Each structure stands twice: as C-alpha cells, then as structure tokens.
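Hello again, I could really use a second opinion on something today. I've been staring at a protein lately and its backbone has me curious. Please have a think about how the structure follows from the sequence. I owe you a coffee for this, so here goes:
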Amino acid sequence: MIFAPSGIPSANYDLANFAWVTSPDPGSFTPIWGCNGESNFLRYCNESATKLLEAADAELDPRKRIADFQRADALFAKDVPSIPLYSRPDPLVWRSKLVGLRNNPSPSGFAWNIERWFWK
C-alpha cells in the first residue's frame, strides 16, 4: 500500500489497511462517508445518508442532530460500505508525579494540554 497520489486518494488499490483519525463527534463522518467527501477513499455514496450527515452538521438542536446521525448510521449498516477490523487505540500512561496529563478528547495527540503539566 502506497500512500501517494497513486495510492489511497486515487482509490488505486485492491485492499487497504489504514485508520481514519476522527474526533468523538460524529460530524467527522461527513468527509469520510459523504458522497464525494474529501476522505471518502472507498468512493462510497448514499445520497440519503449524505443529506442526513450534512443536515446533522448544520443542526443546533442536539436531539435532532442525534436523530439525523442515527438515521444515517442505519443506512450505513444496511449498505456495509466497510468492515472495521479494529479501533485505533488512544492510550494514556503517566507517572503519578506528573500532574495535568489528561486523555485527549480529540485526535490531536496526547500533548494537547501540555501547558498545564507540572511535576510535583
């Protein structure tokens, strides 16, 4: 597998093993699973699911947003565009004398709040 212009983005492969790094918010699914999404390397397209993802991304009411994502997720489950083999781990290990290190709620890495760390 070559991660180059002729590889993943061009869909020039028969089999790939990689992980998308997303936030805990399902809004990060739109570029991956939406039709013509910038990270939709599978070229999967379900117009109804894409409309639901886009509606959820613009929705301010949390209950309506959740309902849109759940309906889109039901379409993904029916289509089975991909079979996930694993979830990318986000381990957090620290020494008891290092204070301030916290698990990161986003995919930006373990040092997201390094300015709050100190040794006691």
Summary: The first strand starts at residue 98 and ends at 99. The chain has two domains: 8-79, 90-120. The mean pLDDT is 81. The longest helix spans residues 62-79.
